[in-house]
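Thread: Newbie trying to understand structure tokens

Hi all, I'm a second-year student working on a class project, and my supervisor (Dr. K.) asked me to get a predicted structure for one chain before our next meeting. I've only ever worked with sequences, so writing a 3D structure as a token string is new to me. If someone could post the tokens and maybe explain what I'm looking at, I'd be very grateful. Here's the chain:
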Amino acid sequence: MSRRALAVAILAVWLGALAWLLVRRYRPRSQRELLAAAALTLPPGATYYGIWLGDQQIGYASNTVDTLPDSIRIDYRMMLAIPALGGVHHTEATTRLMLTRALQFRSFTAALRADLGAFAARGTVLGDTVLAITLESGDTTQHLRVPLAHPIVLPELVGIRAALGHRLRIGNTFSMRVFDPLILDQQDIAMRVTGDSTFIVPDSAMYDSTRRLWVPATYDTVRAWRVEQDAGGVHLASWIDQTGGVVRWDWPAGFTLQRSAFEIVYENYRHQPSRGPPPATGDLIDRTAIASDVKLDDLPRRDTLAVVLRGVRLAGFDLSGGRQTLHGDTLVVHAETPGALRANYRLPASLPELAKDLAAEPLIQVHDPRIEAEARQIVGRVHDPVRAARLLNQWVYDNLKKQITISVPSAVQVLDARRGDCNEHTVLYVALARAIGLPARTAAGLVYLRGRFYYHAWPEVYLGGWVAVDPTFGQFPADASHLRFTLGGLARQVELIRLIGQLQLDVVP
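---
Reply by user tm_fold:
Sure, no problem. This is what the structure looks like when written as tokens:
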């Protein structure tokens, strides 16, 4: 090769390398590349939060980030003491996430310990296309595989991915697919950055012996961005700092999560002088109830009810269908009379169009031998769906102790514990019904009780049409004061949050 040809070749190689460097530096970078680069600057450390209901601290939370040579570990812990119906109900939730150094989700473990017992889930991503999950509830273990069409994010990672992905600029909009391991649900969350502000946050604490409390000693100034989230019609707002840490989060019903120093949120909570019944103003059930403008007990009939729903957007709720009809903002409920109940099939049902209402689900263990045996014992040789549905309703009502429970209900666990609130009654009824071939599903919404409408869950069974029953109150069928807003398990029931503090309800005479 001549010297001239060699020079041209060297120049071409040099220009190619220069062009490659320029493209790498100035071309638009993918979100994954931005996260991978920014993750290298993610600092290890721990952040602590107080959880408040009004002016009463009801819990604390912590978020710990450990940066390892080839991975990032994030531990989240939350302790709650929920005041409800004159008592305090304790719950502890923990989550551990394992990520690559580029913030790609690889595995998780999650646990919930509450009044009814423990629930645990662990999962691992297999080849970026499948999430293999193991559930443990009581002494029952289930294995699931969730297909992954897109990369998913766990709730604890939303803020970090938003901050490190350079999305915290006022006016920015973006979305993420979030998977919640405690309710086994994937959901697309739309987010919008609507403002920024500076927060003065306690950075350290000292003990005040006079007040017997830990109080702020020094403060830190933190800039944070307001991020509004919409998921399934539920609207939430949080303040996120430049590393993705939450500074403040306001939830419906008066809940607030606020960053503070460890001693202030943990020691003060742990050494509260009283663990007795909370004041009536702090009762969660009372805070979320909706006063009725008419005493339904005074009405001559309880099998028909019409109410005007105001204050919330009704789109997305399961308000129409079966015994319910929505006319504009007026909901009319016609409850079935016991004598009118007829079914045009025999048990076990062979109804392909209702296959999903006969199938097992992660926490509705239809084919568990204990569920199947109990269901057969309750109904015996009965093949009439109406009689079987009534027998199951009465059995669950008679055999479960009525007790407020904060948990992720599992049918097998409820069968063993024989106690719980409306969610436990409902999940056990649905499992028993499906085990004998009776189509059943979960409904949730509002129910009238002593002058107010309270949030409630109950089953619906298919008897030629969907019929509401209530094993918690012992009603078969349920009366017209049961106002259904959602159909489905916990993932759908979360949508009721958008009603809290917003819904206004007027009974039509």
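A couple of things are worth pointing out once you decode it. The first helix runs from residue 3 to 26. Confidence is low (pLDDT under 50) at residues 1-31, 274-281. Feel free to ask follow-ups in this thread.
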